Amino acid sequence: MMRLPNILTMSRIAIIPVLVALLWIREPETQWAATVLYALACLTDYLDGYFARNWNQQSLVGRLFDPIADKLLVGACLLLLCAFGNIDGWSVLAAVIILLREILVSGLREYLAEFRLHLPVSRLAKWKTALQMTAIGLLMLDDAGPAFLPTTEAGEVCLWMAALLTLWTGYDYLRSGLLHANAHDSESPDKGSVRSGG
């Protein structure tokens, strides 16, 4: 846990209450502070993987908490932005698409982990993440952004682009999961279905 990559990963979870407080106050200064803090959190998402690979510090703890930290951060930010009207109208649908995709991929990863299978992150998924991060940062600023920069409109465009890529990559992940499930079912005799609740 005390390795730098794991510290960076856990820091994304630790700052969520601070982000919530800053966004809740809804003053221009706190909106800027929240945006800067969110940008730093996004930077740690890159740095933890970079250091883990280059310093040979990859660990099960990191593999467990890295996707959890990402989803908690994105989920908290999207919900707050919807609650406070930074995301409204049809753009709420884009936020819903992104959140549902995160739940879908988490379920697929949990299922495939039983067979020691890993869903690799595609190039499109990385583009989706970049657009999603940009959208959330711009929408946090909202009308507190510079007068010459249409932060809200730009954020909404990025959010919809991320949502479209979300549908695409989510379908790819789902198809891959179904292929593994069908292959497993064809190799195993039918012994009844056991499902976990939750």
Keywords:
about 200 residues; mainly alpha; 7 helices
Tally of individual helices: 7
| Major sheet summary line | none
Give the termini distance in whole angstroms: 28 Å
The global form is globular
**Number of β-strand runs:** 0
Helix percentage? over 70%
Helix/strand/pairing class, anyone? mainly alpha
**Element order: H for helix, E for strand:** HHHHHHH
**Portion in strands:** under 5%
Mean pLDDT: 82
Radius of gyration: 19 Å
Which regions have little confidence, pLDDT < 50, spanning 5+ residues?
191-198
Describe what you observe in this structure:
Helix content is 76%, strand content 0%. The chain contains seven helices and no strands. The two termini are 28 Å apart.
